[in-house]
Amino acid sequence: MERQSKCADVYICIDLKCFYASVECIARGLDPFETNLVVADPERSRTTICLAITPALKRIGVKNRCRVFEIPDEVPYIMAKPRMKRYMEVSAQIYAVYLRYVSPDDIHVYSIDECFIYATPYLRLYSLGAKEFARMLMDEVRAATGICATAGIGTNLFLAKVALDITAKHVPDNIGVLNERSFIETLWTHRPITDIWNIGPGIARRLAQHGVHDLKGVAELDRRILYKEFGANAEYLIDHAWGQEPCTIADIKNYVPKEHSTVNGQVLPCDYSAEDARLVMHEMIDASVLDLVRRGLLTDRISLFVGYANSTHPQSSRSDPSTCEHSEEPSHDGCSMTLDAPTDSSLFITAEFDRLFNKEVNTSRLIRRISMGFSEIDAESRQTVLFDESESRRKERSLQETAIAVKEKFGKNSLLKGMSLKEKATARERNNQIGGHHA
């Protein structure tokens, strides 16, 4: 039986169309709907991923987030080097446009080019319908920046997002609208199910094992199976199958996580040997631990992930290039460990990461991705550790605090360890980047 919505709240999800590519076109005085432009780093190989492409390229069949070599040779295009700092500036400018009409308490910034707005009180304030209000915001953004936006309108956050992702693409005004009834009538049997927000390939595969390929199938599947398969996360699937979402923007604003952690990762510029990857890992540890010290935090749990390249180390006696392409070896390895005590000692944490690396990483294989995670412990635990610190740890902390002060005043590259001057090191270049891309 269809569930009925208990309220008439209105949420709007606004997305900036082909944001990075549109910013680059506008900077050149070009129309993104008529210009073939990709945002990708020309200094990288043709296998690099395009961060964005213009609507003009999409219209002729080029896929978003494709690799450069996948663009047909006969298609002429402009390649724009990513400028993350500029994109952040434009995003902030657009957020300022929203603030002319909406309180920050009613805006949830979902990403650099997407946000949710709780619109209910503003429809009454401005005497506008939901589509009129969305159109007004979209027009104001276009007038201020030249960026074209699309929008989804729904009676909850989930429906607004789905209306944006699916419905808005098929209507002339680029504004999709959904409530629980229209969602069930139009999208209950939509496939692929991965088009639905928060349903990725992994969840889709697990649902397919039970013969479920759309949300109607989720709604009709025995809930005991869903809870056995997904645990507590089954509740989200069940709610979303019926077009429901109890979470509000107010809930998001008020949420305080019980635990905190940080993750630092990067895709390496080429295939690295295990020892070169270890060098990069050490650089990442150094930066992450300094960040812990700067914020007055400790860690008591660490994790390491490496993603292997599609080839083995050419100089390794364990490698067999003839079988590499068809190898059944895992494409990655990951592990974690709990430390004996909370710490922010770079020397100790580096030693523990080396233990993980030596134990888990297949050193005969080339590595292309590496990431690490740290739990974050608050200041109360820190006070206990400070009381019990050795003299050597106090000296290390003094050096850390000095390094932080120098970097904050003169820039991240003003003080580097010798390892960051080696050929395969990446810290110097990444210190000049935002989100792994040129600033």
Overview of this protein structure:
The protein has 439 residues and is of the alpha+beta class. It folds into four domains: 11-16 and 86-184, Alpha-Beta Plaits, CATH 3.30.70; 19-84, MutS, DNA mismatch repair protein, domain I (3-Layer(aba) Sandwich); 192-251, 5' to 3' exonuclease, C-terminal subdomain (DNA polymerase, domain 1); 260-438, DNA polymerase, Y-family, little finger domain (Dna Ligase, domain 1, 2-Layer Sandwich), CATH 3.30.1490. The protein has helices at 19-27, 55-59, 84-99, 120-126, 130-145, 157-165, 180-187, 201-208, 215-220, 223-230, 234-241, 249-254, 274-294, 321-324, 346-360, 379-387, 391-410, 427-430, and strands at 11-16, 37-39, 52-53, 78-80, 107-111, 114-118, 149-154, 175-178, 260-272, 299-312, 332-343, 365-376, 433-434, 437-438. The strands form four sheets. The protein has a five-stranded mixed β-sheet with strand order 5-6-1-7-8. A four-stranded antiparallel β-sheet has the order 9-12-10-11. Strands 3-2-4 form a three-stranded mixed β-sheet. The protein is globular and about 65 Å long. The N and C termini lie far apart (52 Å). The model is unreliable at 1-6 and 312-327 (pLDDT under 50). Residues 311-337 are annotated as: Disordered.
